[in-house]
């Protein structure tokens, strides 16, 4: 048997529990052995479920181990990893949760998973030192209209129409779950790792829109206008101070106004 | 990057530990007396973050060996060039004392299968694995070590014994070997080989590192023992005994304690390290016996 054919058969039966064990896989008595092949099946699927469980601990805590494993198994069989970099595995898991019918009663679950995924991405993101407030003091006032701020490579924003950050916090570390008013309004979440630790912050209204405008290269003024049009209570000075303290900015540049 | 990393230290013939994030802080705070640390290459292929911050500091204090789990050297398809490139950058950055990978495959078409799958021992796979090892050694511009697998079954088409296959691979590529003593024991029970005989016949002159790990015990369809290479518990007594036998043949050799799941407190790992160090240091047979018992 050619190696390519052997591996095609071997691989196909790994993630299809209903399929037969490929022929020619033998125990020490030279007889076929279902249980021996099943070890590889189990290693592959169980290993990936464990990788997801480690990457989504709050999601797992909310639904319980048994439910999480069943949901993760479904995801593993549908979307196996494409890369041996397993920390990248699970990027599509929050979207999968949205479509997972048995989890429909927990509308915040996918957003909690998005917060966790953002944390994993921030953890492995490129290093760059954050600017402190002093670094902005040197910007002359007359250049403010052209000012663009550069965001930290680890920065991620998760927007939820539910209080998903509150729910996430109750389900990590020594958090204690308690009743949450799902009609209390949405929460926008900032995830960033300016140094060693990943930090998670609640954004004030308009903050997410402000950051997304800055991320797409818009000027500070233009980002402020977008934020105000989304939320009239947006306040630039306090938002900027909070974001600088969070270590969100790594640099600035001046746009060529009217160049377009 | 520190200029101290310019020199690649030799791995001392002592016991090292597989580096786990759970232990980063303890290691940096207490500087334990450990021969070396080994890392899974794939866990350090992110752009930045704590893995690199901690490994950078640990590498300044200890020799580091790099252990790949994702190259799929036994895969029928070509090696993943992008992955090899990432590996090359990692080798350049940390200048590890040793680089090892597995005699296994883990990739099929576009899927990563997340296990070290077994290779049939045929002339076709031998030629293919040799080609891949050559390509890796050329790309990294260094010798690599190949690790003997733990296996749960045999292929009807295999035409070589595992040892003949590995010996021929070494002869054709000039690669070194990593002797995983737990894998020898696991495969020996599963395949009904004699584990000491396996070690005696292994190309020992090419072994540059040993691995030790824990396994779990199940049974197969007919109730025969079936050992699983789980790395989730202390090294089994039978593996300690086999390790002493291997050290008796090899002399002092860098040895790694692998504990990858249910990762214990640092102190529990150190117990394993001291025990392995005692075996390595034991000079005569009586000392060897005492260290094992």
What does this entry look like structurally?
The complex is a heterodimer of chains A (260) and B (293). Chain A is mostly helical and 260 residues long. In chain A, 46% of the residues lie in helices and 11% in strands. Chain A is built from eleven helices and six strands. Chain A has helices at 3-14, 34-55, 57-63, 65-78, 93-99, 109-124, 133-137, 164-170, 207-215, 220-230, 236-245, and strands at 25-26, 147-151, 156-160, 187-192, 199-203, 249-254. In chain A, the strands form two sheets. In chain A, strands 3-4-5 form a three-stranded antiparallel beta sheet, sandwiched between helices. The mean pLDDT of chain A is 95. Chain B has an eight-stranded parallel beta barrel. The longest helix of chain B is centred in the middle third of the chain and has 18 residues, at 123-140. Chain B is of the alpha/beta class and 293 residues long. Chain B has ten helices and 13 strands. At the A-B interface, α1, β1, α2 and α6 of A face α2, β5, β6, α4 and β8 of B. β1 of chain A pairs antiparallel with β8 (154-155) of chain B.
